[in-house]
Design a protein that fits this description.
The structure holds 2 protein chains of 2 kinds. By secondary structure, chain A is an alpha/beta fold. Chain A contains 10 helices and 19 strands. Chain A has an 8-stranded mixed beta sheet with strand order 11-12-14-13-15-16-17-18, with helices on both faces. In chain A, strands 3, 4, 7, 8, 9 and 10 form a 6-stranded antiparallel beta sheet that branches. In chain A, helix 6 (219-236) crosses helix 7 (253-264). The radius of gyration of chain B is 20 Å and the shape is globular. Strand 19 of chain A pairs antiparallel with strand 5 of chain B.
Chain lengths: 377, 325
């Protein structure tokens, strides 16, 4: 049986039939592996602007003849989650817009994208607010940093039922506010702790400064984490205080900051959670990424030369639709060969916050397992 | 002496139904109400499963609308360990022994459960029956459980004898204090938490012997600990295996039921094959779900349920109406 848009194209094309066609379906229309994107409106061209590495970044819609309806069919595997925008051109003027026929949005620091998911992908229920789950507390503290030459802001998450008489593991999260705002991190922590799937923990959500510089394997930033932030956290909060109870986490350049800090201070942070790490490297010659990657490549090359044992357990994840999949796939066997305990996960997703959100349960429950097998409250 | 009343409840975090359980026992005369007896209606409470939070019972008292008598088993054990380090050392050794036995059991169990699940899910042509293979596979699982349970019962008894709790002066002093405390109460509440820690402290202080015929209300891990068999379960944990396993003999105050607290979250309640396997594995005991606001009551001769459901051998969840142990 032909897919819906083909059936529509063969039938009568009136304003009413278009209205009916749009009302009958949800868009993008997923039929098996075929996904139909649709736009309605006058334009000179419509394109799909997506972030899937490996496919042409911009794909042309085709106008359904005698109508103002545009469509594009793309093949996407099951369990895919894709963020996109539509490019709409009128004459010389063109703009990217969110899909007017799709309410599903993913927010990020630059605004929001439309979201398309295929069969098998389910937005995790543990990322939704659960009225049963008591909420942790967020407070903001300031850390004077001699290493970075200014004061640094850190938002600290303490779990519900926080007690100073207990001892908690410490998770230091790069790009902390973005994780809270765009990856529902507070909600995820509340839920996973409530479900006993992860240990109650204190999370230092660091606010980035000059991000591209400081997260790019910058030694003063590592010094800030290890010699300034960590002592303050251990002084102010009831932390377990052992290396295996300390974790550095980050996404993209934040993952580089995490791995490099652990490498500069081996054994201090025995847990790492590296999401879509920007681990660019060269075997020979120069890299083809932007100059922001220069110190990253220098670090990753040096790390590959002499990895040592920066941590005991490392969770690594990457989306197969991101350009960094090659670097992350390359890193895993290398880490394993160095003797580290590595868990690696690939998703059919891109370089975005909801992909990182979706990995939080796998990563945190492996690095800091909760007591759910033994505790029934 | 009338037979003891028991109520088992689901989780009491949010939407607690402890008050209604207390009121139900009060109204049928099982719990003496305030001022009507020597006990003055006081309730003893065990929150040892909460471990270091054991003494933080303000919310519980607030919910009940009265102060309870916290038996403080966890604190008592901490005091014991501080005064008699050999008891703590003995506890660690016991735990190591039990963990190794449990590891051996889970290896054996894993293979048997894989076979049973595979056979229960196997499609066969019309006219072909593999029921006998399925029955055999479940019998193998039951046999492993029975052997493990017998072994656990023996080993627990041996380890406790080695620990010397029954002759240790400090332990005996605490037990006597607990007996006196319970004599002044009209009922015992057992909260949830870490089920094996709770069970360990209940055994250490011989609560089964001390509780006499006091009515008992237990929830979540508390319900598991007072039953005959402590069964650990989670069908979809984020890490590790998901094989339901027998972990310890319980106090055996509650007979004929295997409690499954927080079943809505922990069990694949829409998977009839998994539910059927559980029901058949632990039959003739009834596998009973204990979710929020659920309650099952034992009146001395039979169980009845409010909200709680039982797993059937066909893999459905049915209301627990009346069950005779």
């Amino acid at each position: 049986m032909p897919i819906a848009i083909r059936r529509f194209e063969r039938g009568e094309k009136t304003v009413e039939s278009i209205d009916a066609f749009l009302a009958e379906h949800e868009f993008p229309l997923v039929e098996g592996a075929q996904v139909t994107f649709v736009y309605r409106g006058e334009a000179d061209a419509v394109t799909l602007q997506h972030f899937i590495y490996g496919l042409p970044t911009s794909q042309q819609f085709r106008r359904v003849s005698e109508t103002d309806l545009w469509s594009l069919i793309v093949e996407l595997p099951p369990e895919s989650r894709v963020e996109y925008k539509l490019g709409v051109r009128h004459g010389e003027s063109s703009k990217w817009i969110r899909d007017p026929l799709n309410d599903k949005l993913a927010r990020d620091p630059f605004g929001a994208n439309s979201v398309c998911t295929t069969s098998g992908y389910t937005e995790p229920d543990w990322a939704q607010v659960d009225p049963e789950a008591p909420q942790g507390t967020l407070e903001t503290i300031t850390i004077p940093s001699a290493a970075l030459g200014d004061d640094r802001t850190v938002t600290v998450y303490t779990p519900a039922r926080f007690r100073t008489t207990r001892r908690y593991p410490l998770l230091i999260t790069h790009d902390g506010p973005d994780f809270v705002n765009f990856a529902s991190f507070g909600t995820v922590l509340d839920n996973l702790i409530h479900r006993l799937e992860i240990a109650p923990m204190v999370v230092a959500l660091t606010h980035p400064g000059a991000r591209n510089k400081e997260y790019a394997a910058h030694r003063p930033h590592a010094q800030y984490l290890a010699e300034e932030l960590l002592p303050v956290m251990e002084e102010r909060y009831p932390l377990t205080g052992t290396p295996d109870s300390r974790c550095l986490m980050g996404a993209s350049f934040g993952a580089v900051a995490s791995l490099s800090a652990a490498w500069y201070y081996p054994g201090l942070f025995q847990r790492l959670m590296l999401l879509s790490g920007s681990f660019a490297f060269t075997d020979i010659g120069t890299h083809e990424r932007s100059s922001a990657f220069d110190p990253v490549v220098e670090f990753v090359n040096a790390f590959r030369e002499e990895p040592g044992l920066p941590a005991e357990k490392i969770f690594v994840a990457c989306g197969v639709y991101e350009s960094l999949i090659y670097e992350n796939r390359s890193l895993v066997p290398f880490l394993q060969a160095a003797g580290l305990d590595v868990k690696y996960f690939e998703s059919r997703d891109g370089h975005n916050w909801e992909n990182w959100r979706d990995r939080l349960r796998d990563g945190l429950s492996w690095l800091f397992p909760g007591p759910l097998w033994m505790v029934y409250e | 002496m009338p037979p003891r009343s028991i109520s088992l409840l689901g989780p009491q975090t949010r939407r607690p139904n402890l008050v209604s359980a207390v009121e139900a026992l009060s109204s049928d005369g099982s719990l003496a109400s305030d001022g009507s007896s020597a006990s003055d209606g006081r309730l003893a409470v065990i929150t040892a499963g909460w471990q270091e939070r054991e003494l933080e019972i303000e919310e519980l008292d607030e919910h009940l609308g009265r102060a309870t008598v916290n038996l403080a088993l966890y604190r008592r054990s901490d005091e014991l360990f501080a005064r008699s380090p050999e008891l703590l050392e003995g506890l660690w050794k016991s735990r190591a022994v039990l963990e190794q036995i449990q590891a051996a059991y889970t290896v054996q169990l894993s293979g048997a459960l894989d076979a049973a699940r595979t056979l229960l899910s196997m499609d066969v042509d019309d006219g072909v029956s593999i029921t006998d293979y399925q029955d055999d596979a479940i019998a193998v699982v039951r046999g492993i459980d029975e052997h493990h349970f017998a072994r656990l019962t023996t080993v627990h008894a041996e380890l406790e004898a080695q620990q010397g709790y029954d002759t240790h002066d400090d332990v005996l002093r605490h037990r006597e204090e607990l007996r006196e405390a319970l004599a002044g109460c009209s009922g015992l509440l057992v909260a949830g938490g870490h089920v094996l820690v709770l069970l360990n402290r209940l055994r250490m202080f011989d609560l089964a012997g001390s509780v006499g015929d006091l009515p008992v209300i237990a929830w979540s891990a508390g319900a598991m600990a007072v039953s005959e068999r402590v069964v650990l379960f989670h069908h979809s944990p984020p890490q590790g295996h998901n094989n339901t396993e027998l972990a310890a003999p319980g106090l055996g105050i509650c007979k004929g039921l295997v409690p499954f607290p927080h079943a809505a979250r922990r069990l694949e309640v829409h998977d009839p094959k998994r539910l059927s396997l559980l029901a058949r594995r632990f039959a003739p005991d009834q596998c009973v779900t204990l979710d929020h606001e659920n309650r099952v009551d034992f009146n001395g001769s039979q169980w009845s349920g409010t909200g709680a459901r039982r797993l059937t051998e066909s893999g459905t969840l049915e209301p627990l109406e009346v069950v005779c142990p």
